[in-house]
Amino acid sequence: MGASSHHNANSKVLITNTGISRNVTNAGPVSGVVKDETGAALPGVSVSIKGTQKGTQTDGNGKFKIDAAPGDVLVFSYVGYLRKEITIGNGTNFDVTLDPDAKGLNEVVVTALGITKTAASLSYDQQTVGGKELEVAKDPSFVNSLQGKISGLVITQSSSGAGGSTKVILRGNKSIFGSSNVLYVVDGIPLNSLTSGQPSGIFSGAADGGDGISNINPDDIESISVLKGASASALYGSSAANGVVLITTKKGKAGKTTLTFNSNTSFDKATLLPKLQTEYGQGSGGVNDATSFDSYGAKETGSEPNGQPTDFFVTGKTLINSFTLSTGTEKSQTFLSYANTDATGIEPNNKFVRNNITISNTSKMLNDKLTLDLSASYISQDRRDAPTSGSYFNPITSVDLFPRGMDFDQYKTYEKFDPTRNINIDNWFQPVNSNADYFENPYYIQYRNPTDQGLNRFLGSVTAKYDINSWMNIQGRVKVDAANQTYSQDLYAGTNTLFASSTGHYTYQTSGNDQVYSDLLLNVNKDVSRDFNINGTLGASIQDNQYSSLGLNGNLGIIPSYFNESNVILTAGSPFNQTNKTENQSQSLFASVDFGYKKFLFLDITGRNDWDSALAFTTQNSFFYPSIGLSDVLSSMFKMPDFISFSKVRLSYTDVGNSIPTFISTNPSQYTLNGSGFLNLNLVEPFGDLKPEKTHSFEIGTEWRFDNDHITFDATYYHTNSYNQLFNPQESVAGGYSSYYVNGGNVQNTGFEGSLGYNGKIVDGLQWSTNFTFSLNKNKIIALYTDNSTGVSTPITRFVFPNAFDSYSLEARVGKPFGEIYAADFVRDASGNIVVTGAGTAASPYLPSIESDPTKFKDVGNSNPNFLLGWSNTFKLSNFDLAFTIDGRFGGDVVDMTGAYLDSYGTSEASAQLRDAGGITISGKQISAQSYYQTIGSRQGALAEFAYSATNVRLREASFGYTIPGTVFNNKISSIRLALTGRNLFFFYLKAPFDPETVLATDNTLQGLSLFGQPSVRTIGFNLSAKF
Amino acid sequence: MKTIFKKSRLLLTGALGLLVISSCTKDFKGLNTDPSKVTQAQAAGDFQYIGGFFPDMQENVFSTIDYVYQLQQNLNADVYSGFMMSADPFGGPNNTNYFMKENWNTTTFDQGFNSVMKDWYQIKQKARPQDQHFVAMALILKVEGMHRVADVYGPLPYSKYSTVAFNTPYDSQQAIYTQFFNELDTAINVLTAYVKANPGATPFAPYDFEYGGDYKQWLKFANTLRLRLAMRIVYADPATAKLQAEKAVADPNGLLSAVADDAKLNMVNGLSYQNPLWNITNAYGDISMGAVAESILSGYSDPREPNYYLPSTAVAGVEKGIRMGADNATFNYASYSLINDVASTPINIMFASESYFLRAEGALRGWNMGGGTAQSFYEAGITLSFQERGVAMPSGYLTNATATAAAYVDTKNPANNIAAGSPYLNNITIAWNGGDTFEHNLQRIITQKWIAIFPDGEEAWSDYRRTGYPVQFPVVVNNSGGTIPTIPGIRRLPFPQDEVQTNPIGVAQGTAELGGPDNGGTRLWWDKNPNH
Questions:
Q1: Model ipTM?
Q2: Does residue B357 belong to the interface with chain A, where contact is any CB pair within 8 Å?
Q3: What are residue A490's phi and psi, to 5 degrees?
């Protein structure tokens, strides 16, 4: 039966004095040293006297001292090691060796709904990362720190700096209409995703607004488990079909009061900036022109001016200071944390400030039968001038396209006085009201078109658990998550009148996003006989989400740059917009039962039924979805060779349903007021005939541990199909509506993922912990929907994701993977030569012909990688530690629209090289560099020429630390660790001219595209952590 | 015992859960009703679910929104009529040079179906028996709005609108016109009866932007509309044309006949907008004077010219127009004349003077147009037009028998000049000449009508296609790839691409009814003038 938690006979406890006396003498000091199986001292081991509240911890050298009397039982416990009990005799000095916990068998993991199970019984893949691993190189949004550490996790960051959202996909994209993002669950309760508006196209100008998970304080996290498949998450319902990231927060610990302090300082530097040419000046056709936007002027004679547009980028600084306090007795434990994040970005005036406060308490009462858990967090966040993308309000556009040869320094003073108006206006080489809608002084954009995103969020939860008897308990939970967000943009007088009146423009929006979750669970865990165990849960839950917003958006009246509602022109357009309370409620009943046989064979069955308010007015008010799984611990079933410490195979099948968005089925349809305030009918046909979206998923996996668990290996194969997706095709307006909803589709993901790890000593004193993760996902659209609107059932084979524009189109096509990028290419004749138009004269130059029909665009590849590798390492030698993660994404493609713009405006190095070469010959016709690039560049050009492989391998993060032991401080301080850290340090391999892992939008649109997003940053910093 | 105990606990929790669920799902319909939208129950107050759709209907016949108006008619019909041309090349070939851009051919259609038809359908569905006068009003507005759509495309999914979910069949344009006349019959009968039974009642007043709820004015409008539609089909179905025209004139409710009768989209009852042409001209700089307008108005030394257009800066103080399809990418016409409008100018829907020109044409054709001759109606029309524009008619205008359209000079690109004596100049004098040929007098009537109805390019383009007047300059650059003849010019807009994709069967049937390929060169049913 493997390892057991009681060691008596074989105990390695050395009792220096033998003889047992029951005669109680006065308690006296006993002391000793606790070591691990290799003989190394174990600091931080909890030492307590059984049945009392007395306890202590071992110091940095593994030593402990406690007052105890003979007959008392000392209990030693430490995470990752088996608990050990020693009864005190006459001795006063003990050397204790703790045995590592044979993880595979007895490790307890937190699964869906916070239910704890033994890892052995899991029939699906679940991978856990400790909170410590997130601290290697801190990121204000901790999700980004999971890169490369968990197999199959595809993390894509928005290019909007600190506070931006992150797209996290497990096992491929599944939903075309909805989201494929994972669900975050904190202490068993789903976290409000707070999905924000995403950039939506060429002009955009709106920054990504962050997401719910980015607000969380990483110091509050004890561990993170990733439930990769739908099977693991069936119990969370609809939103969990894409996998779940389970976050377990830190709790107070009984025993010694522990205070930790952590200070992290890091510096960001822009990398992968576009390569600019230094040969040709501002102008066109080889002629200089001081008012031109182009850099196709004459060859420069002098040297480049001192002021370069890239000087715009400054060094970003991030300061994260946090402390945690943990204290408690056996009956009541309290945890308190505070963190302050203060970051400035690489764009001037970009600032991010966050304060997180968390307090939690766990108490036992009623003879320890009732456990009450209270937790409250408050988050306040402010984000100024978050980096945006697209051409409006984006300083990068002006920086990248700034005419070459001009001195950038002269525009660092971004305003100049206009005596006719007695105000300052944009200091720029083009008049404010020119038609070039892209350009403003980049500093002016930052300081005089500032945006501000504010967030106040409160999370509070109460959990009461009552042990009815030794094998049954009932638990109720309520969690409130109330977020209030504000957004404002002040456009000062003097801003381009495309965006504002001559006195300015003001946008202000406030929104409330509240979620209340409650559930009631009955848990049973009973050994029915010697061989049979039943572990089951029956539960009901209600989740209620409310959203409301009120905003104001209009040109200013008579007072320039006075940003207040009273100064907004209320008569033009419709300056106010309001969403009344939008409410959605889902109610669920669910059950999960594990049958265990002899602790090696486990059958896991779950079922859930959801009632969702979004389904009102449809034919089906609720939907049911089951799962079934089987796990067999081979190493317990058969006698295995000694070097195999654990072995298991598992298999599971799951259905997950997904509801529809609110209000799309509402019938009779509702009216709106049009722009003039008059009644208008909704043009979308109510959707009454619903089939909920369904994902069928199957997985089979195996886990092995060798050499006393020093080597771990796991591998999983999965196959999922997502059906009945929602589509919103157009219909003929002659039918009375302009679009309708229809179910359809089959998106298939198959893949393989796994990890190989080693944790142990390589040479004396040098501890190495390494984990290699790999994953492969193959996605295929088997079917889209069938369109019946034309009277003939027409299977649709092409779906264009929203926000495709000009020469770029992101699509789902039958037979191709999800998120295929199509881009305009040259028009070619029958023999494959590029068609060239024009007469070859000055008035009508030769120009290559560009495809303008999106259905004929070239398939330039997919926005998703096929294959991921991650390799994380930690070395420990005495008081030094070194950690690094290398990860690689293989496959996938990106389109560099930024580069297309640079070429078109002539600022790029490539454009100079082609000029040096005297232009290009296509199909026998000579074309000048300017004609060529202004035809193929920009957003309407031959973007297929700007497609690159997204494959990249990089040193994701690294840290080097030194721990000063407590003894140096006379044990007044437990320990202090100093570390040098870095993130995104360098690329081993990169083909694209920008970081292919940063995206414009974290929804399903604008993937694999660069469009003046903030450049990628390299982060270097240092970290100080102290434990008292 | 133990097992039973456990089961009962399980059942208890289950029952509790079910209780929770059954008691709460009742509210789901309430939760799934969007509180930021108006429910049908809320709209029942003040009968807004009937009357509330009239404002949207009226403000979309001619859109009050500049960028909608721009594609609804400005970059199409307003150019093809000779009234206007854009100095903006719009990044390449487009409708102004006969490259029929897919997304420029949609708005006219969508304005008709997404607003006018949809609003009419709501009013018709919700009207109570005592609300039939509202249904009659909706019918008049529907005919007014939809003839503008039918005259652009030809066949439309008109009679079966909203009766089938998908695949709505198209009607031939002849069938649509027949339905227009029937609908006007119904509307006029209902309103006439209503006015008789409820003298002085103005239930439509809160929703009326044009006539303050005065149904008697709307009856005049309906009669004039019937006269306009009757004249439109004169070459396709002369018998019906005569019948309907005489019926319009004979109706005791009368026709629009005075300045006070002019139909304008007034800024009343909560309607507030900036004149879309003013915005297109001033904010976008996207539309300028057309060359034909310069040629005719300056040829006549017509004082309405500075009333319609601003002086150019190209030739200081003089109105200059651009030729349709001119190469405005190579040549910069930004200094040519812009449209003389102010933001507060209401959109003109129909001028009363039009009714006189219609009667003049009817009289010329020998129809009974009431007491008057072709000449008297013609001269009354011109006189009223000057009054409508607040411009004094120069003495001797009506008797000017020498002035004709002037030669055209393009100061940017002389290749575009139209020299004196060119067949493309609209060579007709103003003064009525009873001894002149039918065609000459028709040209005279239509030319003056064309001046009077400015800036309604859609009606003017329809007249040009029907009669060939006023004579237009050929498009300079024809990018249609041979589908649209340069002379006599474009006949229609192709069906919107959205419709081709979402209703292919309907469009195929519509194209069959059209009797030719679905492009800009195929003539509409009423476009059958043997002389053009």
A1: 0.81
A2: no
A3: -110, 115
